[in-house]
Amino acid sequence: MSEPLTRLALVASPTDRAQEAAADLRASREWVDYDQAEGVVALGGDGFMLQTLHHMLDSDRILPIYGINLGTVGFLMNRHKSSRTLDERIARARRIAVSPLWMEATTNAGDVMTTWAINEVSLLRETRQTAKLEVSVNGKVRIPELSCDGVLVATPAGSTAYNLSANGPILPLGSNMLALTPISPFRPRRWRGAILPDNAEIVIRARESVKRPVLVVADQKEVRDISEVRVRAWPEHQLTLLFDKGKSLDERIFAEQFMV
Q1: Which residue among 24, 33, 46, 250 is the active-site one?
Q2: Does the annotation count 46 as an active-site position?
């Protein structure tokens, strides 16, 4: 069993609801700065949780994080309850490991940008022109020309987000798989995507990238006028999310498969 987390940092989204809850929590216990913390409590929605996780990856100081939903969906969060039970809930919480994606994007101008994504990396057409993409896996071209609105690579944690909306597969946590899902494919019409091992390197090249410009979005970070994107899992920087018992992320992902 893991040691209980006592030195906690508190972060909150700028919304009124999250700020009010933060004021209540600050009065209920002692908090420490992020640099001194053993864990983090994040107040907000899924977007704020992703923002906080990206901050951890940027700072290279990755801590267990317990999210409290004060946003809309809260798929990555726990329910908001009385502040008096918070320490008990964190002590009993289940730890869920999540591996982000690593992405390297090259623009038409030759600039290279690297970043990571917890949910997905999405390539999307910038204009009315259909994107034409070449898709390679582990150095082998699998689709010479995919005509579509775009394509995305999703982690298991992100498979119930944009990926599911694009009719991609739901991936259980711990499956060690990635979803490669087309967005509104035109040709080849019958291709509906692929499930790949998470040690695969996926390379997507934009054909006619000046005439048919493509942008890439890694969670909340966007780069325009892309010529090539490389994506792979990044297990070296594993994240730890804390969930109340019976409400963990893997249970939510499993339950999504039976939603009607």
Answers
A1: 46
A2: yes
